[in-house]
Specification:
Elements (H helix, E strand, L loop, with lengths): L1 H22 L4 E6 L2 E6 H57 L2 H12 L5 H14 L3 H14 L4 H14 L3 H14 L4 H14 L2 H4 L3 H6 L11 H15 L5 H10 L2 H4 L2 H13 L3 H14 L3 H4 L10 H11 L7 H13 L3 H14 L3 H14 L2 H14 L14
Helix pairs in contact: 2-3, 3-4, 4-5, 5-6, 6-7, 6-8, 7-8, 11-14, 14-15, 17-18, 18-19, 19-20, 20-21
């Protein structure tokens, strides 16, 4: 309140002084511009200058307000477009997930211009184009994705590789992934896609060095890579037999390199013994089979016994006798034991075990083996019956048909 009173008093005093100066004349202003001469009192010139200054200030203020309003309006419009683009992008993603590729493609491209993340729009639009079978459009969208984001090279290459893998273009996918890995050597997903490409191309030697990294990042648990490690070692073991210079020594070295968890797999054990036998490693195969079967009777492994001449038939026969003392045993072990007995010259033991296996559950292989033994011993009628039984076991039952009476 006191401040207001002081200001009013100062204004009155100043006004009185100004009025007094105006009454006393206060001088004048003379301005000459070429032929134009302007003369006026100093006070009028001052008042005119204040009026002009006020008009300029008003004009500048008006311009600033108009400019600010336009900027606010522009910002509001931009924000509105951004929101609409985000909503349309979301709808496009939903359409893609639902499998409506054409609608997803249109929605994603319509919203790409004002989207906060146009890279996503173009990448998903490329996938939608691929689903529609429009490969050229997919490539175009991948190119646009790379142009809107300078650091998106790896993401674009990964998307391109996925599309190539889906189309079965494994060699092209492999070339793309090699480039992607050079740009991002430690990118886990690159490794997963590389593994898939090598797997489809059967390039097991190239895939083998990737195993440690695949284990490190837990990628072998991915659905697309399930069973990959087993397939890899299986293929490498079998390839040893296909090599002109493949040897038992090479195969044994490879087997030692296989992780113990994989070597404990029955399928891989069967593969290893099978290739050992093909390479002529009968002694190594027999030794390994006896070691494994001594711990656990597995029919798939027992079936190999007797298929090749044992190193010491009687010794192996005694081992099998001990195994067959167990309360339960299957026909596979009996058949294997019978074959070993034949190698040892124990004809009666072989026949007894073959008959027991036949009674426990006849198989075509068991019938044929027993028929061969019966033929050798002169029991041709029994051999003929067993051969017919084996044939019946290997084919679908014959239909009932009318036949002529026997003569």
């Amino acid at each position: 309140m006191r401040g207001l009173i002081v200001l009013v008093l100062m204004g009155l005093v100043l006004g009185a002084v100004l009025v007094n100066q105006v009454d006393q004349g206060g001088g004048y202003v003379y301005i000459s511009l070429g032929d134009v001469v302007v003369e006026t009192s100093a006070w009028f010139a001052l008042l005119l200058w204040l009026v002009i200054w006020g008009l300029l200030a008003f004009l500048l203020g008006t311009i600033r307000r108009v400019w600010g309003t336009q900027r606010v309006l522009s910002g509001w419009m931009g924000l509105r477009k951004s929101r609409n683009a985000t909503a349309l992008t979301n709808r496009g993603l939903i359409s893609f997930i639902e499998g409506n590729w054409e609608r997803a493609h249109k929605q994603l491209l319509r919203s790409a211009r004002y989207s906060d993340a146009p890279l996503v729009n173009h990448l998903i639009a490329a996938r939608a184009s691929f689903r529609l079978g429009n490969i050229d459009e997919a490539k175009e969208q991948l190119g646009k994705a790379e142009s809107v984001e300078a650091d998106a090279g790896v993401a674009v290459e990964l998307t391109q590789a996925e599309l190539q893998l889906s189309a079965g273009n494994y060699e092209q996918a492999l070339a793309t992934l090699v480039r992607a890995r050079a740009n991002a050597a430690k990118h886990p997903y690159v490794l997963a896609l590389l593994a898939r490409a090598h797997r489809h191309l059967g390039e097991w030697e190239a895939l083998r060095p990737l195993l440690p990294e695949l284990h490190k990042y837990g990628l072998l648990e991915d659905v697309a890579l399930l069973g990959l490690e087993g397939e890899l070692w299986d293929a490498l073991i079998r390839s040893t037999a296909d090599q002109p210079d493949g040897s038992v020594k090479d195969l044994s070295g490879l087997w030692r390199d296989i992780p113990r968890a994989q070597r404990d797999q029955l399928k891989l054990k069967v593969c290893y013994v099978d290739v050992l036998i093909k390479l002529g490693g009968h002694r190594e195969a027999e030794k390994q089979l006896v070691a494994w079967l001594g711990k656990e009777r597995q029919g798939e492994l027992a079936a190999f016994l007797g298929r090749f001449p044992p190193e010491n038939p009687r010794k192996l026969l005694n081992i099998i006798r001990k195994w067959l003392e167990a309360p339960t045993h299957d026909g596979v072990l009996l058949l294997a034991g019978a074959r070993v007995a034949l190698h040892a010259g124990e004809w009666e033991v072989a026949e007894t075990w073959l008959e027991e296996a036949h009674q426990g559950g006849a198989t075509a292989e068991n019938c044929c083996e027993l028929a061969r033994l019966c033929t050798a011993t002169g029991d041709h009628e029994r051999a003929s019956a067993l051969s017919a039984e084996a044939a019946a076991l290997t084919m679908e039952p014959l239909p009932d048909l009318p036949l002529p009476e026997p003569k």
